[in-house]
Amino acid sequence: MLERNPALIRDVLDVISAVGSASAGDIERHLEIDRGRKAGPWWDRSDTKVICEQLFAAGALSVDRRVGFVRRYDLADRVLPAGVVSSRIDDGDAVRELIRRAARSLGVGTEPDLRDYYRLSRAQAATAIADLVDEGTLVPVTVRGWGVPAYHHVEARTPRRITGAALLCPFDPLVFFRPRTERIFDFHYRLEIYTPQHKRVHGYYVFPFLLDGELVARVDLKADRGADALQVLGAFAEGERGDGRVVESLASSLREMADWLGLSDVRVGERGDLAAALADRV
């Protein structure tokens, strides 16, 4: 895109230089660009938005702030401290730091786990992992049941207890890399947004439910502003985990989410083996 649209790149940078912080839509209005197509789904980006994102990835732009989900871009040297903009980091050092941070966050992980955390290439990750093993930051380990080599961050500690409950969005780091999620939790999870409705198994936008360190249920949720309610379109237990403790904790988390969204009610539909019990609790 950057190579195909040199004129649009200059126009985008000129607008931001002149007006300051701007969204992709603001830039299009300044340039009087007619997107010239039917409205698409929310992920259907215009050329201007793609250019902004690629300039952001290249370091020419930075994100000044967000308004809702909308990024407002500005020149990087107007957003970041001068020392950050002018500094130059060796590629190898940068990749090693990313793998180091991934390992610290994950505690223990395979090479694909560590690589996927920051979307690194196989070659980048292999070299960095080898270097971090040599320096003692990563320790090669065997995890029972995984069947592949793994690496343990030297500072990672196993907690005595794991407690707490949380509804996880489909893009939460805990479930984003599906092979790791299946390996650790035996939880098969696929985003069904792009699946035709008649082929969906659990629903359009499904949240896994984490309780005391286990993925015990999943719910298909919709914020219905017109009805002022969080709609639970489907509620499903994982295996034999649909007991009263799970239902009560899930009901509490759903009420908490409704409050966070500014919705006054939680309404449970009929789909799923947890639906009836959950409807009695919310």
What is the fold named in CATH at topology level of the largest domain?
Aminopeptidase
Spatial sequence of strands, sheet with the most strands: 6-7-8-9-10
- Helix-strand pattern, N to C? HHHEEHHHEHHEEEHHEEEHEH
Task: Please tell me the CATH architecture of the largest domain by its name.
Answer: 3-Layer(aba) Sandwich
What is the CATH class of the largest domain? Alpha Beta
Task: Supply the number of structural domains.
Answer: 3
Estimate percent helicity: 40-55%
Percent range for β-strand residues: 15-25%
| Span of the ends, CA to CA | 49 Å
Radius of gyration from the alpha-carbon trace, in angstroms: 23 Å
Mean of residue pLDDT values: 92
The beta-strand count equals 10
Structural class: alpha+beta
Main pleated sheet: 5 strands, mixed
What does this structure look like?
The chain has 282 residues and is an alpha+beta fold. It has 3 domains: 7-79, Arc Repressor Mutant, subunit A (Orthogonal Bundle); 91-153, Winged helix-like DNA-binding domain superfamily/Winged helix DNA-binding domain (Arc Repressor Mutant, subunit A, Orthogonal Bundle); 165-280, Aminopeptidase, CATH 3.40.630. It contains 12 helices and 10 strands. A 5-stranded mixed sheet has the order 6-7-8-9-10, with helices on one face. A 3-stranded antiparallel sheet has the order 3-5-4. A two-stranded antiparallel ribbon has the order 1-2. A hairpin with a 2-residue loop joins strand 7 and strand 8. Helix 6 packs across helix 7 (111-117), helix 6 packs across helix 8 (122-135) and helix 7 (111-117) packs across helix 8. The longest helix is centred in the C-terminal third of the chain and has 17 residues, at 244-260. The protein is flat and about 60 Å long. 23% of the residues are buried.
